[in-house]
Amino acid sequence: MKKLLIVSVFIGCASGAFACNCGKTIISGGGSAGPPQPKQVAKTPTISKLGSDSITVDGKKTYAIDDATEVTVNGADTTFAALKPGMKVLVSSKTTSDHALYAVKVTARIGK
After folding, report:
1. Least enclosed by CB within 10 Å: which of 16, 25, 47, 106?
2. Domain limits at 59?
3. In a domain, 65, yes or no
4. Model confidence over 70-96: pLDDT tens digits?
């Protein structure tokens, strides 16, 4: 009578997880990873304060502005006076020789 020997081989990675060729983990040596985490979505910056010659975004960065600063709201060219706190905004800026931030272009939108 012949004996049949069956050998099973698992190849593990450094983390202790064993995987099949389909890419799914079948045995985990590191414990549970928990439920999937929600993806973080970048928050659109918001105008928090307007001065006579400046704009503050998210209470963190203040940019100097002047008559040469390009301003658009919902895609239409406008003036600095059209900007209001709470508007979503993107600021294209440069650093001046005295290390201040200068807004070259301010693109704002009303609504979502």
Report:
1. 16
2. 47-109
3. yes
4. 999 999 999 999 999 999 999 999 999
| Residue 23 lies inside a defined structural domain of this protein | no
- Residue 71 falls inside a structural domain: yes
Asked if pLDDT for residue 21 goes beyond 90, the answer is no
CA distance 101 to 98: 9
Residue 41 lies in a domain: no
End-to-end distance of the chain based on CA atoms, in angstroms?
78
Residue 89 and residue 110: Cα distance in Å, rounded? 9
Q: Which residues contact 71 (CB under 8 A, 6 or more apart)?
A: 77, 78, 79, 80, 82, 83, 105, 106, 108
Token pair 């040469």: residue: 68
The tally of domains found in the chain comes to 1
